[in-house]
Write a structure and sequence with these properties.
This protein has a two-stranded antiparallel sheet. The chain is built from seven helices and two strands; from the N terminus they run H-H-H-H-H-H-E-E-H. About 60% of the residues lie in helices and about 5% in strands. The protein has about 170 residues and is mainly alpha-helical. Helix 2 runs antiparallel to helix 5, helix 3 packs parallel to helix 5 and helix 3 packs antiparallel against helix 7.
Length: about 170
């Protein structure tokens, strides 16, 4: 099993990647597998559920998908910066502000799914370009350390977290 050191991440992110590290598949295979899981779930969502939210203060299905897309782009950008040994502390982002300005609910559902696929395929190619040493590079995000490899695991784990939420709270 891969050993991830505590100096490679903020403990907040551990739930997103811990089980993925233990499965022994590696960053790239987890990115590939989690894409298949999320696409399979999204393709099963009926049109009548695309604007559904399980509570007034929660996102719609479309907004949730847009959130996964936006978050992946941000984390892939972080991975690239860390891989290139950038020492600048990268700021976080306000997911709720992103959601409010995303226009996700006005978008075509199929296009959202295709955008998610395209972003993930780009992320996979980015991580394929990193060698073992590069994957261990550590940068700073929101004043916390984060390695390139942990960033990749977080991308997969974050998407899988939202697949679970979709299944448990939106599709029941």
């Amino acid at each position: 099993m891969l050993q991830i050191n505590e100096n490679e991440y903020n403990s907040y992110y551990r739930p997103y990647f811990e089980s993925l590290v233990k499965n022994g598949k590696g960053v790239i295979q987890n990115l590939i597998d989690s894409l298949e899981d999320i696409l399979q779930t999204l393709k099963s969502i009926p049109e009548g559920k695309q604007l559904y939210k399980y509570a007034d203060d929660k996102w719609t299905v479309k907004e949730l998908i847009q959130h996964v897309i936006d978050t992946e782009r941000i984390f892939a950008y972080r991975a690239l910066r860390f891989a290139r040994k950038d020492t600048v502390n990268l700021l976080g982002f306000d997911q709720d502000t992103f959601n409010e300005t995303s226009n996700a609910n006005d978008r075509d559902f199929t296009e959202l799914i295709e955008e998610l696929r395209g972003v993930r395929e780009s992320t996979i190619l980015l991580f394929k370009s990193f060698n073992d040493d590069t994957l261990k590079e550590i940068g700073l995000a929101s004043n916390s350390p984060m390695s390139v490899r942990v960033t990749g695991y977080i991308i997969s784990g974050h998407a899988l977290h939202h697949v679970k939420v979709l299944k448990e709270r939106y599709l029941q």
